[in-house]
Design goal:
Helix 1 runs antiparallel to helix 2. Helix content is 71%, strand content 0%. The protein is mainly α and 109 residues long. The protein has 2 helices and no strands. The longest helix is centred in the middle third of the chain and has 66 residues. The protein has a domain of 75 residues.
Length: 109
């Protein structure tokens, strides 16, 4: 006769963790690697940030330099104009002829 063991409990299987889940603890090597990777990522981010600041400072310097250069050219032109006017007034005061005035003005350019 065939008998069944109705009183025998079935074995309980423990849940199996999937392979992609993180272990509950890391080895010392894994911890150091993780910290090194975080440090490297932080360093790269810092370099990118500093490069962006440098580019902005270069742009601002170039802009300010261009403005300063234009101001210097304007100042130079104003000084030349003032110098020519002073020369003309001095030549007229000395009662120079128009031909001499024209000649001196060409030399002043």
């Amino acid at each position: 006769m065939l008998t069944t063991n109705a009183n025998v409990p079935l074995p309980v299987k423990e849940p199996v963790q999937p392979r992609d889940s993180k272990p509950s603890h890391y080895s010392a090597h894994e911890t150091r690697m993780s910290l090194a990777q975080a440090f490297a990522h932080n360093a790269e981010t810092k370099i990118e940030f500093l490069e962006a600041i440098l580019e902005e400072e270069k742009r601002q310097w170039n802009e300010n330099h261009a403005i300063l250069k234009l101001q210097m050219l304007d100042d130079l032109q104003e000084r030349r104009t003032a110098r020519k006017q002073e020369l003309l007034i001095e030549l007229i005061r000395q009662q120079k002829r128009p031909e001499e005035i024209t000649m001196f003005m060409k030399l002043a350019e």
